Amino acid sequence: MDAAIEQSNAPSAPVWAEELLGWFQTEQRPFPWRRRPQTPFRTWVSEVMLQQTRAETAATYFERFLACFPDVSALAAASQEEVLRVWEGLGYYARARNLHAAARLVVERYGGRLPRTECELRKLPGLGPYTAAAVASLAFGEPVPAMDGNVLRVMARFLALDHSVREAGVREYIRSVLAPVLRNVTPGPFNEALMELGALVCTPRGPRCGDCPLRTACRAHAEGRAAELPVRPPRRRIPHYAVAVGIVWKEGKVLIGRRRTDRMLGGLWEFPGGKVEPGESPVEAVVREIREETGIEVAVVDRLCTVKHAYTHFRVTLTAFECRWEAGQAVANSADCVRWVNPDDLADYPFPVANRRIIHALALRGGRQADGAGTCQNSSMGAW
DNA sequence: CAGACGTGGCT
DNA sequence: TAGCCAAGTCT
Predict the structure, then answer these.
(1) What is the Cα–Cα distance from A194 to A51, expressed in whole angstroms?
(2) Most buried among A7, A40, A53, A100, using CB within 10 Å?
(3) CA of A305 to C1' of B11 (A)
(4) pLDDT in tens, A255-278
């Protein structure tokens, strides 16, 4: 027909974008952050929780977190420790520390109101390229693409890109494709729809192209290689460490230390201990590590449990020993601070999951370690 | 820019 | 079992 007439119309969204929005309307999952009230704060919290985290996992934490901290003011008024306690088990604890710090900034600098633009949001700690765009578009309707792992994968297939989406140039290209579309759709739902499509249909492995609203426009599908894209870099092998930790008893209390905030698991508490060095037994290691870390002398009384745990870039086998304080005053040589606490109060402190398992084993064992009670009678000690 | 940074689920 | 993966950010 007459192309000139078509061009004279106001720009409209491509057909595939409308198909996507229609699909999202019927197929989206009912997550708590999609229910009312949809405040910017709730959107922000959900986006941070969803970083590198399954939506089902984030959902359970989301409800509890919002019950504890219903708005920016409540979060800003809380202590970092309270926030970490609620975040415990969700991982990537820098997210919680940054979220808390950002809430305080919002109260101090923005009168308790979240900034409304991607550009301003980007200045807050914990809001990177993705989250700033996500909050700006979902909460405030700014027409900017929110490009998370789902969107990058969907678009790498949609456009049949042969280069890794980790390359900055590839991301910029995808942005250049999406940016004009965003101006002709409702930005929030469109961004959410693209992510939901990646989560439900255009999955990393075994994409369900038969159910995809974009299949007629998808280049990878047309070429029969949706499952082969996007190209992935090879994974590195991760090391495995043996770690020994001590539950050190003194006058009915046990010793814990808080990890420095700039380290892994920063701000969380843990039992003292450390890596078992080559040629060293776990018992020798725990005595040495506790001496180095806290300055006290301990004697190993019993083995409590062994916990295997996989972190992102290494694995550990943790062996926990019950120990008796022998001499010295505990000081924080490597920790942020150390504290003797009643074992019943361990529930009040944020601990990493591996340490929480040790606490669980301690509770199952029952009883208390009386001072001076318990000697190293276990005949299997030599095997440790 | 590559590596650090958690955890649980699935294969 | 061990690896891969899940709505990234920071340095």
Answers:
(1) 16
(2) A100
(3) 28
(4) 999 999 999 999 999 999 999 999
